[in-house]
């Protein structure tokens, strides 16, 4: 998708809300595009990290929530490592996700909601992610039982996936996080 900039005045002030939530000075972006050139998911989206920043600078308003990148960002922080202005896009994306939910933004597309739900369910149960449980829930829900299974034995052999969940996490702390309501950014 592309972000269309209209001449109409947009309600609200998204850039300030994002800055308040993330603590990042978005207006300092130079549009050098080093973030976009290093981002591993831009091949899957039409909007790049630098486009997201530019759209906020130009005050496109809530249309920004239509961008798939907000939900597909892997929080790898490659962009942050490359940015001369030290703009942490992973935190900017976190803030945009929070605001999208608060403002009843567009629903996430494809299997993204199912993946997020499967991930959060294991974190809620064990206090941290449990890969096998998450993969099983996702595959059952998406009816893609055999997709990517060829990679599974090698990942298991290299210890990239644990067969048994970790029971080390502080579950009380996790319960507090899940019980917390999203904060109001207007205050
Ligand atoms: S690398 Fe930093 S300064 Fe350059 S476009 Fe991306 S966010 Fe802006
Ligand atoms: S943190 Fe997100 S936006 Fe930045 S490089 Fe990684 S995937 Fe791309």
Q: Could you list some keywords that capture this structure?
A:
single chain, 187 residues, mainly alpha, Fumarate Reductase Iron-sulfur Protein, Chain B, domain 2, 2 domains, 10 helices, globular, disordered C terminus, binds iron/sulfur cluster
Structure description:
The chain has 187 residues and is mostly helical. It folds into 2 domains: 14-102, Orthogonal Bundle (Fumarate Reductase Iron-sulfur Protein, Chain B, domain 2), CATH 1.10.1060.10; 112-177, no CATH class. The chain has helices spanning 14-22, 34-38, 49-57, 69-72, 78-82, 89-102, 112-126, 131-142, 152-157, 171-179. The longest helix is centred in the middle third of the chain and has 15 residues, at 112-126. The two termini are 32 Å apart. One iron/sulfur cluster (SF4) binds next to α5 and α6.
Count of distinct strands = 0
Instruction: Output the number of helix runs.
Output: 10
- Silhouette: globular
Q: State the share of residues found in helices, binned by percent.
A: 40-55%
| CATH architecture label name of the largest domain | Orthogonal Bundle
Q: Indicate the low-confidence ranges by residue numbers.
A: 183-187
Mean pLDDT: 86
What is CATH's topology name of the largest domain? Answer: Fumarate Reductase Iron-sulfur Protein, Chain B, domain 2
What is the count of structural domains? 2
Biggest sheet record: none
Structural class: mainly alpha
Please give the radius of gyration in angstroms. Answer: 18 Å
> Which H/E pattern describes the elements?
HHHHHHHHHH
């Amino acid at each position: 998708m592309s972000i269309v900039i209209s001449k109409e005045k947009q309600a609200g002030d998204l850039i300030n809300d994002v800055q308040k939530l993330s603590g990042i000075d978005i207006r300092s972006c130079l549009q050098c595009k080093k973030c976009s050139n290093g981002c591993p998911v831009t091949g899957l989206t039409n909007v790049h990290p630098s486009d997201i920043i530019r759209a906020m600078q130009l005050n496109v308003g809530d249309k920004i929530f239509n961008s798939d990148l907000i939900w597909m960002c892997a929080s790898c922080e490659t962009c942050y490592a490359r940015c001369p202005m030290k703009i942490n896009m992973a935190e900017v994306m976190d803030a945009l996700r929070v605001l999208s939910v608060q403002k009843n933004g567009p629903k996430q597309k494809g299997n993204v909601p199912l993946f997020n739900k499967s991930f959060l369910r294991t974190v809620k149960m064990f206090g941290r992610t449990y890969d096998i449980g998450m993969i099983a829930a996702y595959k059952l829900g998406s009816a893609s039982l055999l997709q990517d299974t060829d990679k599974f034995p090698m990942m298991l052999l290299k210890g990239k996936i644990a067969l048994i969940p970790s029971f080390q996490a502080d579950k009380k702390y996790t319960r507090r996080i899940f019980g917390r309501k999203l904060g109001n950014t207007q205050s």
